[in-house]
Amino acid sequence: MTNAFTLERLLLLGLQPTENGSFLVTAKDVNGSVLNPNELVSYLFFNNEQSLYGLLTETNDDAVILKADQLLSSFPETHPYVKYDGATTEDAEQLKAVREASMAWKDPELWSYAEADETGIHFNAGKAGISEEAATLIRLAVHGKLAGSSIRMDQLSLLLPHLRIYGWPGETVSTIPVQIALRLTEPELDSDTDWLLETVIIGDRGRHWQPAVRKVDAPIEEALPAKWKTYAHEIAKKQSEIVSFLNVVEIDSLNSFLSVSMTDPKVRLFISEDLPLLQSFGYSVILPAWLKSVTESKMRVRTNAGVQSYNSTTGLDEVLSFDWNFSLAGNNIDRETFSKMVDENREYIRSGDEWFHIDPQWLKKIRDLMDRADSGEWTVKDLLFQDVPEEMVPLEADEDEEDPLLQFTMQKTLRSYMEILSEKKGLPSTGVPSLLKTELRPYQEVGFDWLVFMRENHFGAVLADDMGLGKTVQLISYLLEVHARPETKTPSLIICPTSVLGNWQKEIERFAPSLTIHTHYGPNREKDEAFTELLIRNKPDIVFTTYGTASQDGEMLAETEFTSITLDEAQNIKNMQTKQSRMIRKLRGQHHIALTGTPIENRLSELWAIFDFIHKGYFGNFRKFTDNFIIPIERDDSEIDKRKLRAKIRPFLLRRTKSDPDLLLNLPKKLEQNEYCPLTTEQAALYESFLDETKFKLQTLTGFEKKGLILKMLSRLKQLCNHPALFLKEPEAPAEEMITRSDKLKRIISMAAEIVENGERCIIFTQYIGMGKLIRQCLSELHGIEAPFLTGSMPKGQRDLLVEAFQDGEFPVFILSLRAGGTGLNLTAANHVLHADRWWNPAVENQATDRAYRIGQTKFVHVHKFVTIGTIEEKIDKMLVEKAALSDDLIQSTQWLTELSDTELSDLLSFDY
């Protein structure tokens, strides 16, 4: 049932047979208006790639002229909004037969009910389940196909075995990104070898591949390179389809790629008998060049690009100039001759003593590129950011690449300049801000210079260094530099997950105390006019907020143009259709920066969202990005489109990994850092209530009882800092629900998932069985990561097997009870150690860390200690640092906590939330 707003269009067809077996097809709409034949062609061949969408279809002033095979290939109709019916009762009956014949034509079973002789092909319509009218149409279609080929009618009987297995050749679109062909190779000179007929695969750039000599007899899947193994079944099927036409070579079964020797007499038969069949149905056969009467070739075009100056960033706007050179079969051709070929629409060209076939459309395309290039249309910036036609882009080098038809090169000085921009080497030095309270490592200084360079050239930036390489301190250096400039009038905005908000505040206090900050978060945050007045009154350098708050207050935040906007863990905006992502991408900043520790090149929808934030419109809308990259890469695994995408994002992306040899020279073997997390509102309320209750009890106790209560209180509070469900002794609940109640848990889970995604491994220590189970549940339900949990109750045999399996790489995350896993184990496969909760004896914590940081460890080890802000975890962490400076002996057991003075105990039992 249709409604008044339907887009569907009904056309009434007239089908008039002609004497030569063709049909005159006319159409009119339900109002009686006659349809233009060219418009009808576009509907009939809407999705028919084999017919070039009807491009060569014959028409007259009134009708479309279709052979029977063309008519059958037009049905069932593929246009989403156009349907057909007969203009008369007779036309409707004819159209019914066409639909029936079309369905049967595409079904290989049809040919089981066919017989062939010198007069043609005949069907047993009754057994085939089709009407006589449909059978007649199919016979006409077969004759039409034969008339356009070099196949004789008496060869139909040779075709039937093939048709019964594969159907009519060429009627289906290949689903594999390569072409299967036969190649005939002549014997080597001065040898007694035979001819070789073999299967080759033609890749997306026209390169020919055949199996290595040692794999000639191997099964097809084993012989294929890794990038094509997933298509092994389809490739084998296509080869069988082609080989079924061979009559001069006897092949019983074929599980490997075809590779057979042929004598001269057999080659002559192959060329005279099999080759016409194969070529008539569009199968590729590659012959020695001297066997061709006309050599297929293309003009070779080389261009060398350059500019006048390269000394400053203004060089980005320099117009490119080009020097063009042409050659055909090794003979140079001047530009005037080339232009004449294009003007005369030449297709067959003689060079020396040979004739060559040239594609005139390709020549026109090249001349169009030349005209646009020579008119000064493209600059260095366009070349850097790939805003030029793909033919003008120097792709990544491919050592197997054949001589390209259009070879794009650059003058040495321009190439060096482009490398500076794309490789981030030789950038202008800004000078590390004097107010930065740390020293930058060389690679961090490069990152800082790059961020400043990108700002000054109005380009967004994605800083995607590995976790542990110091993205935070690079950004803080950038903020110090920018906010020291007199022209800076508004604050910078940093948007981050709630779980790392406290971490950012601590890092600013540590590295850049001169920067003033305001945290826009919580139920009592300023809004609207109060927020504007706060910015005017306090003039903060940095405004912190969370993704959730930025989404809620997006309209208000968008009223301010910030000096810069930074997204930490920018993958949080990956779902571009969510309100959060759309709102954040609308915020206004003079410079947009994204920080992420995970590679984004292979998560394409996420990549689009991040780039839409840092450099609005760079990839166009999402539909265009989908057509240009997501479909060819995710569906077709297109290597050339992967290279194009990498080339386009490279100038905006700075990513260094811990495996980079240059960086390892500048890194310590072990980096320990605190990961600060806030309490949720629920945790904070429970924390204050429990502190009040404990303080009251302590007033009534003395001596031994007081010490016991302190230790019990500490354990209960640590469980609360981990998760309120542990404190309240609640039963298990879904991970989606549990993770919202603890920012520490959320941070541990997201960090572990990020580590796994980066191809690294981690061990997670906790003192509490409940916390270990909770981490394991969340990793499994939210990220599909199965992480074993080693506890003290686990038998030694099982424990040893788990350790061995982790070392062998069978799973990436290993959760361990601090008591059970803190000593005696070798876990050097991990290069991250996560301490979910702190042990008050540093020696115990260090022993646990040393499960990974020990002899045999060849990687940089990153130790993360999770600390909840304002709680006993942060206060005791500070005490440990102070006492360690006095004497390690004082803190070699937990008992020192029971000896705290009244002042120290009072501070410990305060809550700075």
UniProtKB/TrEMBL annotation:
Keyword ATP-binding: yes
Annotated Helicase C-terminal domain residues: 744-901
Family matches, as Gene3D superfamilies: P-loop containing nucleotide triphosphate hydrolases, Tandem AAA-ATPase domain
GO MF terms held by the record: helicase activity; hydrolase activity
Domain Helicase ATP-binding: 452-617
SMART domains, A to Z: DEXDc (SM00487), HELICc (SM00490)
Top enzyme class: hydrolase
Keywords linked to the UniProt accession: ATP-binding, Helicase, Hydrolase, Nucleotide-binding
Enzyme Commission number, as recorded: 3.6.4.-
Official protein name in the record: DEAD/DEAH box helicase
The organism's taxonomic lineage, starting at the top: Bacteria, Bacillati, Bacillota, Bacilli, Bacillales
